[in-house]
Write a structure and sequence with these properties.
- With 310 residues, the chain is an alpha/beta fold.
- Among the domains are: 112 residues, Resolvase, N-terminal catalytic domain (Rossmann fold, 3-Layer(aba) Sandwich); 68 residues.
- It is 55% helix and 7% strand.
- The chain has 13 helices and five strands.
- The longest helix has 34 residues.
- The termini are far apart.
- Keywords: DNA integration, DNA invertase, DNA recombination, DNA-binding.
- GO terms for molecular function: DNA binding; DNA strand exchange activity.
- This is Recombinase family protein.
- Belongs to the site-specific recombinase resolvase family.
Length: 310
């Protein structure tokens, strides 16, 4: 039995143990959660003050963007991370895509073990059953209403009542706000570095290389909303200056380099080829020297940082 226990311990991922401690209001403290998380071996603890019902949590979004393969996200209880099964499953699936794991100290969920993964799969089955039952109840309610001559849906919306329309607008705005802010710390810094020197097409293409599925119009609309809410500088919406083809390539290469300083010249060349960008001479094949020439020019204009390795 001792050997089996040792094998189980050795099978655990050899990454960081990252604790997440959340309380609902600023008056509450995360001290008790931090004590448990440190006792469980957490190297880093991320604190957050915010409602569990809201998915717009900047600290959690930043944590999710930075967590890496082999890392384990640890919470004291499941309700510290999510208030719904669907939200919990979304977070765990995102961690799984990154090669990371999830563990709750007071619940039988540890996705780095077969037993914990089984518990997670049971939760997924429960969530799927919940969605199926909800759909059936909704269909039955609509059928019953129609049989009695009533139309389904909100009568206030159908009758265009101002108070009902205002409430619907508020709900939509809150939902849009949550979507935009859910991972804002992962993509907004790139926008800040590139705008307004780069057009929205170039910014969206750089973000796409980093895993964000923005279209130029959706990205511009999201930034416009942030400016309206005073969460971003209005200058981000300024019109990008017209540029010659080589100037556009220079700013694009500088933007890629600034977005991810760890990229080598060859890495940037590979990204440009994936974007189907042609060199200043019209070639589809990029060399490290072509990238270096554009970066050197951008550096002289103050658009790029220190020289990169080939």
């Amino acid at each position: 039995m001792a050997r089996e226990a040792q094998n189980r311990r050795s099978a655990r991922p050899q990454g960081r143990q990252i604790g997440y401690a959340r309380v609902s209001t600023d008056e509450q403290a995360t001290d008790a959660q931090e004590i448990e998380l440190r006792g469980a071996g957490c190297d880093v603890i991320v604190q957050e003050h915010g409602s569990g019902a809201s998915r717009a949590r900047p600290a959690l979004s930043r944590l999710m963007s930075e967590i890496g393969a082999g890392d384990v996200l640890v919470v004291v209880r499941l309700d510290r991370l999510a208030r719904s099964v669907s939200h919990l499953i979304d977070v765990i699936e995102e961690l799984s895509e990154k090669g990371a794991h999830f563990r709750s100290l007071r619940d039988p969920i540890d996705t780095s073990t077969p037993q914990g993964m089984f518990s997670f799969q049971v939760l997924g089955a429960v969530a799927q059953l919940e969605r199926a039952l909800m759909s059936e109840r909704t269909k039955a309610g609509i059928a019953a209403a129609r049989s009695k001559g009533r139309l389904p849906g909100n009568p206030g919306i159908r009758e265009r009542r101002p108070e009902a329309l205002a409430k619907m607008t508020a709900v939509r705005r809150a939902s849009y706000s949550a979507r935009v802010q859910s991972n804002i710390n992962a993509w907004l810094p790139t926008v800040r570095r590139m705008r307004p020197d780069h057009n929205w097409d170039d910014v969206a293409r750089v973000l796409k290389q980093r895993g964000f599925d923005w279209t130029p119009e959706r990205l511009r609309r999201a930034v416009k909303w942030l400016v309206t809410e005073r969460l971003a500088d209005p200058r981000l919406l300024d019109r990008a200056p017209p540029r010659l083809p080589e100037d556009r390539l220079m700013t694009l290469v500088a933007g890629i380099s600034q977005s991810n300083p760890d990229l080598s010249l060859r890495d940037i060349a590979t990204q440009l080829e994936r974007l189907h960008e042609r060199t200043p001479r019209g070639s589809a094949k990029w060399s490290a020297s072509s990238v270096k020439n554009l970066l050197d020019r951008a550096r002289r204009l103050g658009l790029a940082g220190e020289p990169l390795a080939a």
